[in-house]
Design goal:
By secondary structure, the chain is mostly helical. It contains 16 helices and four strands. It starts with a helix and ends in a 15-residue tail after the last helix.
């Protein structure tokens, strides 16, 4: 195989990747069959509502994989990745708003309803082009990617690391949240973008479209996981792990560490943007609340629960925490944050390597458990 594509094929030779993709594809097929083949009254029937809910979980899982790439393997604890998620979501939301056309409440074929309500007389320049799908999908990648490129270049060039970098990323998403809340920004203000009708000419509210979005999100998760895994097992990945564990020593060996950090950070931001773009048509709304620093902190909790530096652990954590959130907010809505905090404390004390670390321990033969841990193991705790 040509060397330029060999690194992409390498993850498929790993047993863990094969197992993850097998389980994911089997789950997608099972949900599809249970939704289409069984009647509504059947006890095993999966409703369209459940399909949409699972699709939202999968978009969160892709977001968690993006965060695990930079936190688990690069040692960058980003508390602002929600900004990249929201930018991808807004790019998709702007396209969906342009597709409404004259079917809106005010019947304007060009201006979205909220602009008509606020007496805008023309479409802002940064909304131009979002009536075309290819342009909108390109902006799903470019909007978070360019922001990550500029922010990362300035931060990594200045050698901002550790808790200082975490605080700056949190300040970034908080600043964007405040900006998007303003009506004069032209993004719907507090209400955001909603009332979507169709995507690529198909009705967003139909059961078939909901199922298609679920499958598309699952496929995106599989591709994102393989891409991240390919980066991790390549020479680039080894330099990233070396940077995570001993940045000064890696620089002493002659590596331009900031270049590796910037590349991986941008890739992670683009994956987060894709996750946001897949999230929006399934939930039907995007508002400035997605920029909230609380959301970015929650993402870090997902990864910590599932297990850092595993990628599949991030998927497990995202799905479990959000399922628990769905249950708790329905039964005891005021107690959810207490439950989340308690869960994080429990994991920190009882499962410092997360659920994936527990699974790895259970599957490891007893004789190997008594041997000293390999310092190059991906489960090794790294400083942030």
């Amino acid at each position: 195989m040509h060397s330029s594509t060999a690194w992409l094929a390498r993850p498929f030779r790993e047993r863990a990747t094969q197992l993850f993709l097998g389980i994911l594809l089997a789950a997608l097929a099972a949900v599809t069959l249970l939704n289409l083949a069984l009647p509504v009254g059947h006890p095993l029937h999966v409703s369209t509502y459940t399909v949409t809910l699972l699709g939202k979980y999968l978009s969160y899982a892709l977001m968690a994989v993006a965060v695990d790439l930079v936190w688990g393997y690069l040692g960058i604890l980003s508390l602002g990745h929600g900004a990249f998620f929201a930018l991808g979501g807004y790019a998709m939301g702007m396209y969906l708003m342009r597709q409404i056309g004259d079917r809106g409440t005010y019947g304007d074929p060009v201006l979205p309803d909220f602009m008509v309500f606020l007496d805008w007389d023309s479409l802002p320049w940064y909304w131009l082009g979002f009536d075309m799908a290819w342009f909108a999908f390109l902006m799903v990648l470019l909007a978070p990617g360019v922001l990550a490129l500029v922010f990362g270049f300035l931060a990594f060039r200045s050698r901002v690391t550790g808790v200082y970098l975490s605080i700056i990323t949190q300040a970034l998403t908080f600043a964007l949240m405040l900006a998007f809340f303003r009506n004069e920004m032209g993004f719907g203000g507090n209400n955001g973008l909603t009332d979507f009708r169709e995507l690529l000419g198909v009705d967003l509210r139909s059961d078939a479209t909901r199922l298609g979005l679920f499958l598309a999100t699952g496929i995106a998760l599989a591709l994102g996981y393989v891409l991240c895994r390919a980066i991790v097992v390549s020479k680039l990945g080894r330099v990233c792990v070396a940077t995570r564990d001993a940045e000064a020593r890696t620089r002493f060996l002659g590596y331009r560490v900031e270049r590796f950090q910037l590349f991986v950070f941008v890739v992670s931001a683009m994956l987060a943007g894709v996750a946001g773009a897949l999230y929006v048509p399934q939930v039907g709304i995007i508002n400035p609340g997605e920029f909230s620093p609380i959301f970015s902190i929650e993402i870090v909790l997902w990864v910590a629960l599932g297990g850092r530096a595993t990628l599949y652990g991030a998927v497990i954590g995202a799905i479990l925490v959000n399922y628990a959130k769905t249950v708790f907010t329905g039964v005891m809505p005021d107690a959810w944050l207490f439950a989340l905090g308690g869960l994080f404390v429990l994991v920190t004390v009882m499962l410092p390597k997360g659920i994936s670390g527990l699974l790895a321990y259970r599957l490891t033969p007893r004789r190997l458990q008594r041997e000293p841990a390999d310092p190059s193991s991906p489960h090794r705790e790294a400083s942030t």
